[in-house]
């Protein structure tokens, strides 16, 4: 893999955390689990993975800021650079023994994501990208799908769990979209949903009320693979508002119109 020193550092940290997670995944029944809320669990494995990543990244770049799902935000001496990390995206899948989860690491520079890694350790798939250098899956260049007809397209989303207020809007989205496409998937890991759009496996993805660490890396993957990305509402920023819709060039506009109810 050819990349910058920062990207290589991110890949190394993701692999190291991934090895720790795979070890715990094999013993998932024995994990010590505590509840953060309805349907949203945190495990010892999750916290250990973030510790590994934070130690490696801040050890090498001690002046950078940090935003992690488990340890929150820390301002760095360098206010222009920040790591954005989800050590285990798809925690519920992980705790149920479902092999669909990932480590997500992004580097933000002056408010823009410039490097991204999403590592699916269970399948040994490393999705990575740098601004202006394309998106890659292991050693192969990624491109979004070339489909142009909605009826042939498969989309991904996240169906809200627990008592989330976005459930009615999502059900309305599905009622409008499903008759117009080939299918909708809900696999429970936003970082991988975005990575799969970049790889051409999905034709588009949308979701509301996400956190920056859920989508920061995936957004750059999609953009560098030739995809289009925006918030669901005009004028919003995906990383700020936590809503995102993305797709390939041919389907992005009709897909966005359906989701918006236009």
UniProtKB/TrEMBL annotation:
Coiled coil: none annotated. Pfam families: Inositol_P. One of its GO terms (molecular function) is inositol monophosphate 1-phosphatase activity. One of its GO terms (biological process) is inositol metabolic process. SUPFAM superfamilies: Carbohydrate phosphatase (SSF56655). InterPro entries: IMPase, Inositol_monoP_metal-BS, Inositol_monophosphatase-like, Inositol_monophosphatase_CS, Inositol_monophosphatase_SuhB. Mg(2+) binds at residues 69, 86, 88-89, 214. It catalyses: a myo-inositol phosphate + H2O = myo-inositol + phosphate. Its cofactor is Mg(2+). The keyword Metal-binding applies. Its EC number is 3.1.3.25. Keywords: Hydrolase, Magnesium, Metal-binding. Belongs to the inositol monophosphatase superfamily. This is Inositol-1-monophosphatase. It comes from Paragemmobacter straminiformis.
């Amino acid at each position: 893999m050819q990349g910058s020193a920062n990207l290589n550092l991110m890949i190394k940290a993701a692999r190291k955390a991934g090895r720790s997670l795979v070890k715990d995944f094999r013993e998932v029944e024995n994990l010590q689990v505590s509840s953060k809320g309805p349907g949203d669990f945190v495990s010892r494995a999750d916290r250990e993975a973030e510790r590994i990543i934070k130690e490696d990244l801040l050890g090498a770049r001690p002046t950078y800021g940090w935003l992690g799902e488990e340890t929150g935000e820390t301002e760095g001496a360098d206010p222009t650079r920040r790591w954005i990390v989800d050590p285990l995206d798809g925690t519920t899948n992980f705790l149920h023994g479902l092999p669909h989860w990932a480590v997500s690491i992004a580097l933000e520079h002056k408010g823009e994501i410039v490097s991204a890694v999403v590592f699916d350790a269970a399948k040994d798939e490393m999705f990575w990208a740098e601004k202006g250098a394309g998106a890659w899956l292991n050693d192969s260049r990624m491109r979004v799908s070339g489909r142009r007809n909605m009826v042939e397209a498969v989309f991904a989303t996240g169906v809200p769990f627990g008592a989330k207020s976005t459930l009615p809007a999502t059900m309305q989205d599905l009622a409008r979209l499903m008759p117009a496409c080939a299918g909708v998937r809900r696999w429970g890991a936003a970082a991988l949903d975005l990575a799969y759009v970049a790889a051409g496996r999905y034709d588009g993805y949308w979701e509301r009320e996400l956190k920056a660490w859920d989508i920061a890396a995936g957004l750059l993957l999609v953009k560098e693979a030739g995809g289009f990305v925006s918030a669901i509402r005009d004028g919003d920023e995906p990383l700020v508002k936590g809503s995102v819709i993305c797709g390939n060039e041919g389907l992005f506009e009709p897909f966005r119109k359906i989701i918006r109810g236009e």
